[in-house]
Amino acid sequence: MIKGSIVALVTPMTTAGAIDWEALHRLVEFHLENGTDAIVAAGTTGEPTTMSFDEHFDVIRKVVDQVNGRIPVIAGTGANSTSEAVELTQFAKKVGADYCLSVTPYYNKPTQEGLFQHFKAVAEASDLPVILYNVPGRTAVDLHNETVIRLSQLPNIIGLKDATGDVERGKELMDRLQDSDFLLFSGDDLTAADFILQGGHGNISVTANVAPRQMSELCAAALAGDSSTAHQINTRLMPLHKALFVESNPIPVKWAVHAMGMAETGIRLPLTVLSPQYHANVREAMQHAGII
């Protein structure tokens, strides 16, 4: 069972916007050396919506090959086209990913029945375990708890990343699924400690890109029921959690990775490099967290 701190890995790029494969290799090793429990490759933080299919495939393949079974790799295979999500998931299974993370279809605004049928089709197209991903603030569609419970009864759907930041909603879902082995992950760094302390299994994290050791320790403490330690670490990281969303994700976190000397500032349009007015804010938060 996958638990703990799971990084929603950025895809490093050159200033010209090309994928920087050497930097990607460095970042994966950085996480393997600093306690990250699993890696999401080409998830939404990794900018797959502006990648070609071949690039998306290559990022997943290269991360799987490099990790080589040392920790689980979760492939980002979501799309707002069901057929594309199916194709991406089948590819991820083919190259050896351990799980896939499938975001709710964005812009289309499907009904709850449409969401059920979408994820059912993805789950039935491959035997790769599917983790659902609900982030209504980015997709304009909300996967309701009732639909999650319904989907949890399908044999190949094994978990949910809940990025709503609504801890009470997460607790309701945990209570209703407590007799199952369905996995529940936070997707909101600010509230992840409380989410895990009340029964969650881990956090799929943006902050872990630059603070992998701290996020690993936070999640481990929360999983052990050590509220004091978890909140102590979280308090130190709170300015960083907030600073990494001063502009749309992954703009700030890619700049932070650059500030650590791990990658260039590359990002793809329509996203742009972090505005200079926020540089000091992000840098100060990184200093407060003990990163630089």
TrEMBL record:
Record keyword Lyase present: yes
Main subcellular localisation: cytoplasm
The protein's annotated pathway: Amino-acid biosynthesis; L-lysine biosynthesis via DAP pathway; (S)-tetrahydrodipicolinate from L-aspartate: step 3/4
Key words of the record: Amino-acid biosynthesis, Cytoplasm, Diaminopimelate biosynthesis, Lyase, Lysine biosynthesis, Schiff base
Superkingdom per UniProt: Bacteria
PROSITE patterns from the UniProt entry: DHDPS_2
Keyword Cytoplasm appears in the UniProt entry: yes
Active-site positions on this chain: Y133 (proton donor/acceptor), K161 (schiff-base intermediate with substrate)
Transmembrane segments: none
Reaction equations catalysed: L-aspartate 4-semialdehyde + pyruvate = (2S,4S)-4-hydroxy-2,3,4,5-tetrahydrodipicolinate + H2O + H(+)
InterPro entries: Aldolase_TIM, DapA, DapA-like, Schiff_base-form_aldolases_AS
Enzyme kind, highest EC tier: lyase
One Gene Ontology cellular component: cytosol
This enzyme's EC code(s): 4.3.3.7
One GO term of the biological process aspect: diaminopimelate biosynthetic process
Binding annotation for pyruvate: T45, I204
Residues under site feature: Part of a proton relay during catalysis: T44, Y107
Compartments where found: Cytoplasm
Subunit structure: Homotetramer; dimer of dimers.
HAMAP family, sorted: DapA (MF_00418)
Family label: Belongs to the DapA family.
Summary of the function given for this chain in its UniProt record: Catalyzes the condensation of (S)-aspartate-beta-semialdehyde [(S)-ASA] and pyruvate to 4-hydroxy-tetrahydrodipicolinate (HTPA).
Protein name: 4-hydroxy-tetrahydrodipicolinate synthase
Organism whose genome encodes this protein: Oceanospirillum sediminis
Gene: dapA
